[in-house]
Write a structure and sequence with these properties.
binds guanine; metal-binding; 2 domains; Guanine_deaminase; nine-stranded parallel sheet; hydrolase; binds zinc ion; alpha/beta; EC 3.5.4.3
Length: 438
C-alpha cells in the first residue's frame, strides 16, 4: 500500500499524545480518521463507525502504538558527517578544529546533495517529522537542502548560516551585503518551492561571528517578512565571556540580541544554559523559545540547562539534537538526555524535582510545536491538526532474552522513551503522507 496516494485513511489501535506538559493521554483502542492529511476525528474509545468512504483502515497490532511526530528544534545538517567527532574539546576549539573545516566543503553542491539526502532520510527514520535545520554559509547548498526536504516530505524550517567575522579558517565568511543578499535568496527560493511544510529561518550563527549591523539587518528582514529566526545563545562559559568583550555596551548576551531586534515570538535560541533571571524574563516578554540540546550540552561539556527554571520563567522550550555538537540525531535520545541532565541537576540543587518521562515526551512533541507557535497544527492528535505521526513498534524490544512479556500501553511508552531506537520507528507520516517505513 502506497499511502502517498492514500491520504484518506483510518488508523485504529493504541494511541497516545500529550494532554499537558506533564500528562500523557493513553488510549488502548482509539480511532483517528485522516482526510487530506488532516485529523477529522479522534475517537478515544473505539466507538466510531468507520465507513467505506473513510478509506483504508490501518490496524495497529500488539506491541505497536501511534504517537505524534517528533520535533527537533535544532540540528546542523552539514555537520552530520562529523557526528561523534571532537567531543573532547570545548565549543570554540571544536568549532575551529572540526566544524568550520567540514562546513566550508558545502560550497560543493554535489557533496552537499549527497550528505543532505542522507541526513533527511536519517532524521525521518528516527521519527523526526519536523526539524529546524541550520545549513552551512552557502546559499546554493542550503537551497538544495530545502529542495531535498521538500522532496522527501519532511516538515522543516531551514536557514543559511550568516556570519561576517571571527571565523578562524579561510574562505568561510561573507561580507555583510553578500550575506544579506544570500539570506534573502534562500528565503525567496524556499518560498518558491510552494510547499507550506518548508519554511526559511534567518540564521545569524551566533553573536561572536556576527557584528551588530548584520544582526540588525537580519532581524529587520525577518520581521518585515514574518520569518523565523534561529541562533545560539549562552551555550558555553568562554563563549559568554567573548560575547561580553565584543559587545561591552550590552548588559548581557540576551541584550545583544534584544538590541539587534533578534528576539521575536518566531525566534529559536539553541542552548541557553547560562541565562540569568533578567535574561529569561526578557525572553518570556518577547515570546522567544529555547531549543534544549542536552546531548550536545553534555558531550561538548558545555553545561546543564535547567528546563524547570526556563518553564518557571514562562519561557517556551522544546528539544534539539544539535548534531554534531550532539552525537545522536534522534529526538528519542534527546528525551533520554533531558532526563539525565535534570537528574544531574537534582544532585546539585536541594529539593529539585527532575523531569519525568511525561515531561520530556511533551518537550519532544507538543512543547516543541508550542515553541514554534505551531501548536494548532502539529504536536498532538487534536481534531483539525495535520496528521504528523509515528507508528512505534515495541516488539523488537519486547523479547529480551527470548521472553515475551505482556506490557501495558504506558509501559510500552516508558520503554520507548528509556530504551527506544530507530528500529522501533516503523512508519512515519507527515501531513498524512507516509514518508518513512520499514
Ligand atoms: N555556536 C555557533 N555555532 C555553533 C555550532 O555549529 N554548534 C554549536 N553547538 N554551537 C554553535
Ligand atoms: Zn547548534
Amino acid at each position: 500500500m502506497n499511502f502517498k496516494q492514500h491520504e484518506n485513511f483510518v488508523i485504529q489501535g493504541p494511541i497516545i499524545h500529550s494532554l499537558s506538559s506533564n500528562e500523557i493521554g493513553y488510549y488502548e483502542n482509539a480511532t483517528i480518521v485522516v482526510k487530506k492529511g488532516k485529523i477529522v476525528s479522534f475517537d478515544s474509545e473505539g466507538k466510531i463507525k468507520v465507513s467505506a468512504n473513510d478509506g483504508h483502515v490501518i490496524k495497529l497490532i500488539n506491541g505497536q502504538f501511534l504517537c505524534p511526530g517528533l520535533i527537533d528544534l535544532h540540528i546542523h545538517a552539514p555537520q552530520y558527517p562529523n557526528i561523534g567527532l571532537g567531543m573532547d574539546m570545548p565549543l570554540l576549539d571544536w568549532l575551529k578544529a572540526y566544524t568550520f573545516p567540514l562546513e566550508v566543503k558545502y560550497g560543493d553542491l554535489e557533496f552537499a546533495s549527497k550528505v543532505y539526502r542522507y541526513v533527511v532520510k536519517s532524521t525521518l527514520s528516527c521519527g523526526t517529522t519536523m526539524a529546524v535545520y541550520y545549513g552551512s554559509m552557502h546559499c546554493g547548498s542550503t537551497i538544495k537542502l530545502a529542495e531535498i526536504i521538500s522532496e522527501l516530505g519532511q516538515r522543516a524550517i531551514v536557514g543559511k548560516a550568516a556570519m561576517n567575522r571571527n571565523i578562524p579558517i579561510d574562505n568561510y565568511t561573507e561580507e555583510t551585503t553578500q550575506c544579506l543578499e544570500h539570506t534573502q535568496k534562500v528565503a525567496d527560493c524556499v518560498k518558491n518551492l510552494k510547499n507550506p511544510l518548508v519554511e526559511t529561518a534567518v540564521t545569524p550563527r551566533f553573536a561572536i561571528t556576527c557584528d551588530m549591523p548584520l544582526l540588525q539587518s537580519l532581524a529587520k528582514m525577518a520581521v518585515d517578512q514574518d520569518l523565523y529566526i534561529q541562533t545560539h545563545i549562552s551555550e558555553n562559559k568562554t563563549e559568554v565571556e567573548v560575547v561580553k568583550e565584543l559587545y561591552p555596551e550590552c548588559i548581557d548576551y540576551t541584550d545583544v540580541y534584544d538590541k539587534a531586534g533578534i528576539l521575536t515570538n518566531k525566534t529559536i535560541l539553541a542552548h541557553g544554559i547560562y541565562l540569568s533571571d533578567r535574561e529569561l524574563d526578557v525572553l518570556k516578554e518577547r515570546g522567544t523559545c529555547i531549543a534544549h540540546c542536552p546531548n550536545s550540552n553534555t558531550y561538548l561539556q558545555s553545561g546543564l540547562c535547567d528546563v524547570r527554571k526556563l518553564w518557571n520563567h514562562g519561557v517556551k522550550v522544546g528539544l534539539g539534537t544539535d548534531v554534531s555538537g550532539g552525537c545522536n540525531a534522534s529526538i528519542v535520545d534527546a528525551m533520554r538526555c533531558a532526563l539525565a541532565t535534570s537528574t544531574h541537576l537534582s544532585f546539585q540543587i536541594e529539593g529539585y524535582k527532575p523531569l519525568n518521562f511525561q515531561e520530556v515526551f511533551y518537550l519532544a512533541t507538543l512543547g516543541g510545536a508550542t515553541a514554534l507557535g505551531m501548536e494548532n497544527k502539529i504536536g498532538s492528535f487534536a481534531v483539525g491538526k495535520d496528521f504528523d505521526a509515528l507508528v512505534v513498534d515495541m516488539m523488537p524490544l519486547g523479547g529480551t532474552a527470548g521472553v515475551m512479556l505482556e506490557h501495558t500501553l504506558k509501559e510500552h511508552v516508558q520503554k520507548f522513551i528509556y530504551c527506544g531506537e530507530t528500529k522501533n520507528v516503523k512508519q512515519v507520516f507527515v501531513e498524512g503522507k507516509l514518508v518513512h517505513s520499514k
